[in-house]
Amino acid sequence: MKTYYYVHTGHRIGLDRFRRACAIINELKNQDIILLSSDYRIAQVAHEYGVQNAVGVDVVRNIPYIAEQGDRLIFDSDEANPIMLEDMKKFFSTFIHIKNGSIIVEPTYFLKNKKTVKMTYFFGDDDYEKDLEKNISFIDNFNPYLQLGFYYFLDYEEELKNKFQNYFEFDEYKEMIKKTDILITASPQAVLDSLASGGRPIYIKRLDYSDDFDEIFIDLNIPIIQNYDFNELNNLLKVLDNQKYKNLEEKSNKFILFISNNLRL
């Protein structure tokens, strides 16, 4: 009996699910978990993030061609309809569905580091339409570092580097989170990682993103800015020292314990 972890990721949806998959798999080192990714490129580099076994499956419907009935599956995706989900529950002996809005953070982020970078802007890993560049005036006057994402095409990455005085490469994401005080980002996972590390994240709500994290961020007193509103961001930064962020406690990773207990059944 094998254990698989399927994660929906790609250049149109970002890597948030992949990042939390890495957090879970790395914590469950006593379990032999095979990561199934809908993106072959991520499967090829997964070992760089502590995931030893990864396979690209292209689409969710290919999972049964790899797994066998009675295997176990951790499923992080919104692709499946209710009928498909019921079929998966019957096919796998253990089926754990991770839904968007789950608070899962790699424990290393809770080790507070000295903040040596005042501000970083991380749009996300999905920028197929080059929205970062289209809305670059949104952060023009604040001179932040830029955290580069994974899916930039042709010479777009070089164009972005030329527009920012300082930047972090894609593989410096973890270092960026630990160093940055104010993180302006459209990535919900980056918001959680930043808050856990003692940073002060500001969430940019993209129109093409779901509302799954909105209530969570409101409860944690994380500022939310709608659709690249420069004036709103400018005003917020002036009073950010008065923003009472709530602590994200490490016990928020109780979902990892839940998964571990279910895999031992």
Task: Characterize the structure shown.
The protein is 32% helix and 18% strand. The protein has eleven helices and eleven strands. The chain has 265 residues and is α/β, with parallel strands linked by helices. It has helices at 16-27, 40-45, 63-66, 82-91, 131-134, 156-163, 173-179, 188-196, 214-219, 230-238, 254-263; strands at residues 3-7, 33-37, 54-56, 72-76, 94-97, 117-122, 145-147, 167-168, 180-185, 200-205, 224-226. The chain folds into two domains: 3-104 and 254-263, Rossmann fold; 107-242, NAD(P)-binding Rossmann-like Domain (Rossmann fold), CATH 3.40.50. Strands 8-7-6-9-10-11 form a six-stranded parallel sheet. Strands 3-2-1-4-5 form a five-stranded parallel sheet. Helix 8 (188-196) links the parallel strand 9 and strand 10 (200-205). It is globular, with a radius of gyration of 19 Å.
Could you write a compact summary of the structure shown?
32% of the residues lie in helices and 18% in strands. It contains 11 helices and 11 strands. It has helices spanning 16-27, 40-45, 63-66, 82-91, 131-134, 156-163, 173-179, 188-196, 214-219, 230-238, 254-263, and strands at residues 3-7, 33-37, 54-56, 72-76, 94-97, 117-122, 145-147, 167-168, 180-185, 200-205, 224-226.
